[in-house]
Automatic annotation (TrEMBL):
Pathway assigned to this chain's UniProt record: Protein modification; protein ubiquitination
SMART domains on file: BTB (SM00225)
BP GO annotations: protein ubiquitination
InterPro entries assigned to the protein according to its UniProt record, in alphabetical order: BACK_BPM_SPOP (IPR056423), BPM1-6 (IPR045005), BTB/POZ_dom (IPR000210), MATH/TRAF_dom (IPR002083), SKP1/BTB/POZ_sf (IPR011333)
BTB domain location: 52-119
Name recorded for this polypeptide: BTB domain-containing protein
Amino acid sequence: MRRSILETSPFLQDDCLIIECDVTVIKAIRVQVPPSDLSENLGRFHDSKELADVTFKVKGEIVRAHKAVLAIRSPVFKAQLYGPMRGKKRTSINVEDMEPAVFKALLHFVYRDSLPAMDDLDRDENKEMIKHLLVAADRYGLERMKLLCESTLCKRLDVDSVATTLALADQHHCSSLKDVCIRSLRENGLPVPVGKAQSVPVMQSVLAIRY
């Protein structure tokens, strides 16, 4: 633009140039991605028993499940259901030395990747359930479930339960839980057993002498 034209422009006032601009702001569109619902879907799949292809007999109670899901989650289930010793068309398995409630809680974790809800973990029966679940997790090679149980027991350890908990931790190779138990014994002025002395009867005798 030539200066002569600019000087006669209505946009030039008092030696100031007025420039008018139209600005369009485009707001970024964000796609809201919901959290994964895989565990919820698998949980509903298990609850429905649809397409269940294996049954477990647990102290007279029948529990149905899905071979593929069990095999993916547990190396022990995989060996039982698809290993060389499985036998032909194995669709029924007897579960020894486990209560039905414990086995059902185990399957709850297998499908949902979480422990079943327990309203009050300070109640004795719920503490015992966590111990049984730890044993079951170790038995079926569910390491994450085992660590969840171990963590819960660490948080709720007391003098009354330290004996059996230490023996449990030693038997099932729970190093963190074992360390917490040993620290609790020392803090309460109790002797710390080693090796075979960590058995339940010996630990209970130690506590009986102390109290």
